[in-house]
Amino acid sequence: MRAVLIQAAVDHRQPFERRVAAVCDRVVAHRGADLVVLPELWATGYFAFDDYERTAEPLDGPTARALGEAAEAASVHLHAGSVVERGPDGRLHNTSLLFGPDGRLLHTYRKFHLFGHRSRETALLAPGDTLRAHDTALGRVGMTTCYDLRFPELFRVLAEDGAELLVVTAAWPAARIDHWRLLVRARALENQVHVLACNAAGHQGDVELGGASMAVDPWGRVVAEAGRGEEALAADLDPASVERARSDFPAFSDRRLTAAPEKEARLLASRPRAPHRVAPSRTTGCTH
């Protein structure tokens, strides 16, 4: 399987509609790939909090339609990063979209873990409440977003739901890019899956994005990694290597706890909470 991760930057000098058109053109340019992946909130800009309301659209809005048309024109599966979705109840969500080669919207994921530290995401958006992998011609795919990387239980739920490929869309700052590299590899290794992690590049306000988009195999090995600037990172993945890794090293069969949501909820409800000994620092730079 050939995957292409488009490590894009947001140019706020361009009108929003032009940003969408430019990235759709970049998707179409990768006809021949099996899967194309975009970063988190690549059109609005993750850190452009004042633009969330203005750029929010329903899932049948013009941005989603343009992305579906780009997927069809390129004849690729398109993980279209995420957009600011205006839900049917009027609330806003950070929502990832997966399109098929026919342009049809196959699957969506609303970001579970909203980032609150020196970010307005938690104030502006509502978190998702549904977590499922989805069968595609490329295998069973799970979708996650940026800050989710710090919560391994979310990835384990998707792995238990049969995910063979986990896609991470992100706007991860350069200040903590060492965390990014560690966490992406760990999520692949511990779940014995391929992980495609597409980060943003450039600057958004006073925040520098870290780039370093990555493709990682089920053994935690980096197949391909981008630099810091804008680029299209291509990676060839062997879908059969997931089954081989789990057969050669069957760690899942030795687990004593499950991440199944209903069982996890009962476990956490019965466990006493330990008191916090150290208050979290508020002096570090913005990170995910």
From TrEMBL:
Q: Which domain of life is it from?
A: Bacteria
Return the InterPro entries for the record.
Answer: C-N_Hydrolase, C-N_Hydrolase_sf, UPF0012_CS
Does Signal appear among the keywords? Answer: no
Q: Where is this region: Disordered?
A: 265-288
One GO molecular-function annotation for this sequence?
hydrolase activity
Q: Which UniProt keywords apply?
A: Hydrolase
| Record has Hydrolase as a keyword | yes
Stored CDD domains: nitrilase_5 (cd07583)
Q: Which PROSITE patterns match?
A: CN_HYDROLASE (PS50263), UPF0012 (PS01227)
Can you give the residue ranges of the CN hydrolase domain? 1-239
Q: Which family does it belong to?
A: Belongs to the carbon-nitrogen hydrolase superfamily. NIT1/NIT2 family.
Q: Kindly provide the name given to this protein in its UniProt entry.
A: Carbon-nitrogen family hydrolase
